[in-house]
Amino acid sequence: SAAAVLELLDIRQRAVYDADADPRKYALRKSQDNPMVKALYARGGFLEEGPCGHRSHHLLHTTYEDRSAHIRALKAKGIELSF
Amino acid sequence: MTEETRKRPATRAMDLSGVRVDPPGAVRTMEGIRNTVYSPGATDPNTLYFVEVDPAVCQGCGECSHHCPTGAIQETGDGTRHIVDPSVCMNCGQCLTHCPYGAVTERVSYVSEVLEKLKDPDTVVVSMTAPAVRYALGECFGMPTGTWVGGKVHAVLRRLGFDYIWDNEWTADVTIMEEGTELLERVKNGGKGDKPLPQFTSCCPGWIKFCETFYPDLIPHLSTCKSPVAMLGPLAKTYGAQQTGTDPKKVYTVSIMPCIAKKYEGLRPEMADSGRRDIDATINTRELAYIIKKAGISFASLPDEEADPILGMATGAATLFGTSGGVMEAALRFAYEAISGKTLADPSIKAVRTGKGINKVSVDVPGFGPVRVAVVSGLQEAARVCEEVRAGTSDLHFIEVMTCPGGCVNGGGQPVDDSIMEASLFKKMMATVNKRFNMRQVG
């Protein structure tokens, strides 16, 4: 069963690489060549400032939060964790 | 008529009026996993259990604890397992996919809400499908493991009445532009200040919560880029609405994922940059199969169709996001050309293709020199790399981390292999004996 599962993982991954290399599934293989991506960043396009511009930063970038306080509280109660 | 609507195929949506919708709180088995129908609305995701063990079904074998990277699943008094606290659970669902008894259940399921929205003529329902879904959904319909069903996924969503078939493979390409550019900026600045090197990828919601929880000091190393679906949500409600002449208020975005942790991501309060919720619902591959079967669609016989192009057209680089090493390979295809100004003749960068563990690779880029990268599969391994970065001993530029072994194709929301469900008789017997013994000890 463990061997079967390993093989399953492997088969799905291989299928991804096969699709990437199959021009009938994906005619282009580089993100920067995608015409609909070029249109997004083109002059007059929705993100015409280019990647990491102001509008990108507002819509497509984010911030993260320190979530360690909860973990410290659990450990203080004596709960053991892997990290 | 706008450009986008003119290009759409003429496929008609089916009539869903006869499809019964499960009431909130109902428990339904979806591809062998029990899900509770529950749409949390504006609930803080940190208080929710996305997966939980059913003690009545648990045999105490411990297989789940074995696959839990953080130690969140622990033994109770009677030998069964449970999640000690939602803050420790990264929502990856590896416990669920490895439980031989189907004892791990899902507690958040938007299937009913999605069906209601599909039935509502006033709601413009947008599909946002992750790359990995198209490498596993076919298994739910008797197709061999690893069958690519990308074209059929677009076809089935159109028949279910999704108004726009947009796609996270398109935003995976956008992610490469944003994240690749961010990396080049960090390299140019020498990793100084608040934008240090190495840069970590940020697509995987299990990894992001892990970093925030156990390595918060490394947050400046995380790419500020949202994941592809967290980019498509706000783009659908701004750019997509604009391109199609749709009132953004009417747009309902459905994230379709190989993952359980994406349900947590979709509920993050900060995911509201379009002026409303960016992601309205998140379902996984098993739940999509459930909806398709409920609607009575013969999936395997569907034709291949294209996504709606403007927020749907994608490259091979984008589909690679479904596998461990894929984001890195896609990013290198971009970075190589952006740095060197030369064309990368062979896009296949096989050195970064990774099954498990940590894979460190150096790729020579003309005009720059070696770009040093690492691909990490699994959070235990991620912790080792985090320790190196924390200690300041890492000389890497870019690190990809995926929580699930081999990447999203093996995510916690994917169809579960029959061989796991059908655990050996011996193992089941041992577990039952152990459980009885433990219960007697307690009693």
Can you describe this structure?
- The complex is a heterodimer of chains A (83) and B (443).
- Chain A is an all-alpha fold.
- Chain A contains 4 helices and no strands.
- Chain B has a domain at 171-225 and 316-410: 3-Layer(aba) Sandwich (Fe-only Hydrogenase (Larger Subunit), Chain L, domain 3).
- In chain B, 35% of the residues lie in helices and 15% in strands.
- Chain B is built from 15 helices and 14 strands.
- In chain B, the strands form 5 sheets. Chain B has a 4-stranded parallel β-sheet, sandwiched between helices.
- Chain B is globular, with a radius of gyration of 22 Å.
- The chains are: A mainly alpha (83), B alpha/beta (443).
- Chains A and B meet through helix 1, helix 2, helix 3 and helix 4 of A and helix 6, helix 7, helix 8, helix 11 and helix 12 of B.
- Chain B: Residues 1-21 are annotated as: Disordered.
Short summary of the structure?
Chain A has helices spanning 2-20, 35-41, 54-60, 68-76.
SSE topology sketch:
The complex is a heterodimer of chains A (83) and B (443).
Chain A: H1 2-20, H2 35-41, H3 54-60, H4 68-76
Chain B: H1 3-6, E1 27-30, E2 33-36, E3 51-53, H2 63-67, E4 73-75, E5 81-83, H3 94-98, E6 104-106, H4 111-119, E7 124-129, H5 150-159, E8 164-167, H6 168-188, E9 199-200, H7 205-214, H8 228-244, E10 251-257, H9 261-267, E11 281-284, H10 285-295, H11 316-319, H12 326-340, E12 357-365, E13 369-377, H13 379-391, E14 398-402, H14 418-421, H15 425-442
Parallel strand pairs in B: 7-8, 7-10, 9-14, 10-11, 13-14
Antiparallel strand pairs in B: 1-2, 3-6, 4-5, 12-13
Relevant terms:
heterodimer; A: 83 residues; mainly alpha; 4 helices; 51% helix; B: 443 residues; alpha/beta; Fe-only Hydrogenase (Larger Subunit), Chain L, domain 3; 4-stranded parallel beta sheet; 4-stranded mixed beta sheet; globular; iron ion binding (chain B)
